[in-house]
Amino acid sequence: MIRKSILNLLLWVLVSSPVLGQKTDSLLALLDTIQGDKKVKTLNELFRANLTSDPVKALSYTREALNLASEIDDKRGMAASYNNLGVAYRNQGALDKALEYYITSMKLYTDLNNKEGIATTKNNIANIYSIKKDYGQAMRYLEESYNLLNQLGDQYRIIGSMNNLGNLYSDIQLYEKAHKYYSEAYQLSEKAGAAFADPLTNIGNIFFRQGNYQKAVEHYTKALSIEEQNNNKLGILNIVTNLGITFTKARQPKPAQQYLEQATNLSTELQAFTTLPTIYKASAENFSNLGKWKEAYEMQLKYDEAREKIYGEESSRNIAQMEMVMDFQEKERELDMLKKEDEIKTLQLRNSRLFIILVILGILVVLALFNLFYLDKKRKLITP
């Protein structure tokens, strides 16, 4: 299975590695001088700064951010931390845990009416469903995210959303439509002054599926150059995995094995375990091409074990349960809103009735006064 490139909103590193290093140093220098929600925000920024190069360190920063945000009741900081935890666990292959964190994040962002945060978490929830091949749910969340981003006019995140919509159309084999989204996403990123590798990688994926391995390698190589300039290790992992698979299919075992070994080492280093089933399966096929049957069999066993761990039935069941909880929470919010609207309408009706009664009483008082005045005047006229 070829690896898609998925842009995680709020987690892009759009600067070169020297600038990123300076940013990380400045953020670390801030930690000793700030407190409260500012420190929470800085810790979450450190998560984003370290995610692609050192995800283990990144995870420790966002855990610290969550602990502090919980202590000081910083709801926005908590929402960002839960989203970041979801991203970290998704990369490790713990899909049900990732979804749990995303749902918690989205609930907090919804309570805050933070549309940017809602769009981000919906995008990430869509990615989970895409991995699980539930394309209907993935499309639902991704379209909702895309519509929100368009309302906000956030160009960078729109690029990521367009890329991910391309992924979904590619998954259901609507390659022409997918290619259109990828091309537009890449062109927008160039205009923004920071070319994204992901759309190029995904265009390479289309050529791979069409059997045009030469074109696929060209796009992967161009994308790899961008990721290496940005020191995006997760992006590098994704692309070298695809290069390993492509050379395996093209029956060029030597470069295939080099890329697959590099991918295995990177996956372990970054704890990006969702990549391992793909690497093991391609390695088994490559060893088979070389006639190394024992190694091929061992890799197939590793593939089966890793795949079951990530895509197993228990994980699917947990996700379904959490989806039910999320739907129930949404319905509860809708019911609360309806109750509040009903209370307002009831209060308005009572006020209207009271106003009508007061008007009628006012008219009656005026009439009574008029009658009294008229009768008194009449008495005076007939007095002897």
TrEMBL record:
* Swiss-Prot/TrEMBL TPR repeat ranges: 79-112, 159-192, 197-230
One Pfam family from the UniProt entry?
A: TPR_12
What sections of the protein cross the membrane?
A: 354-375
Q: Which InterPro entries does the record match to this protein?
A: TPR-like_helical_dom_sf, TPR_rpt
Give the signal sequence positions: 1-21
Protein keywords? Membrane, Signal, TPR repeat, Transmembrane, Transmembrane helix
Q: What is this protein called?
A: Tetratricopeptide repeat protein
Q: What species is given as this protein's source?
A: Chryseosolibacter histidini
